[in-house]
Amino acid sequence: MLVCCAKFNGLVQCITARSTAYFTASLPTEFLVGTATKTLLNRADAASMIGALQSKTRKQLIEQLEEELGELQATMKKDSEELKRTHNHRCDELARSLRTTGLTCPGCGQHSKDIRFIDKSPDTKSYFICKACGRSFRPEDL
After folding, report:
1. Of the candidates 9, 40, 2, the residue with the CA atom closest to the CA atom of residue 23
2. Residue 106: how many other CB atoms lie within 10 Å
3. Which of 56, 64, 71, 91 has the highest count of CB atoms within 10 angstroms of its CB?
4. Domain that holds residue 76
5. What is the pLDDT of residue 55?
6. Per-residue pLDDT reduced to its tens digit, 76-103
7. How many domains does the chain fold into?
8. For residue 3, what is the enclosing H or E element?
9. Calpha distance 24→2 (Å, rounded)
10. Long-range contacts of 110-116 (CB under 8 A, 24+ apart)
11. Between the CA of residue 67 and those of 54, 59, 81, 106, what are the distances in Å?
């Protein structure tokens, strides 16, 4: 919407263009200024109230999301530690099997007892290194 206003003989001439229709109004200056002032003040009050409400709502939402994030991170950490324990337990079983029957390297396909077990438990995941090809592998690779 395009508005064009001009003061002429104590009246303000306003032309409003909305798509192809044109509207013209002649209003006393005092009326226009008073109305504009009231409208601006009402909008300013409404905007500040909306801003305050949005800020309060945003803060509450942020706090709620931070709490949920903390809970999810704690759950993920717990699940990750459980997966690591399960992985390392499986590696220990394979290491016992390695000593008795040997393992087959997924890299070179050679079955041998000459595979090194790298025990990283409980901090990180353990793994194996084939001495024939030098590749490392984990139980999920077998």
Report:
1. 2
2. 15
3. 91
4. 72-142
5. 76
6. 999 999 999 999 999 999 999 999 999 9
7. 1
8. strand 2-8
9. 12
10. none
11. 20, 12, 21, 44
| Contact of 134 with 108, CB cutoff 8 Å | no
Instruction: Classify residue 111: in a domain, yes or no.
Output: yes
**Pick the residue with more confidence: 32 or 110?**
110
Residue matched to tokens 């087959």: 104
pLDDT value of residue 2: 43
CA–CA distances in Å: residue 112 to residues 96, 97, 119, 126: 13, 11, 19, 19
Q: Assess whether pLDDT exceeds 90 at residue 43.
A: no
Q: Is residue 9 part of a domain?
A: no
Amino acid at 48: S
Identify whether 36 is part of a domain.
no
Rg (CA), the chain: 38
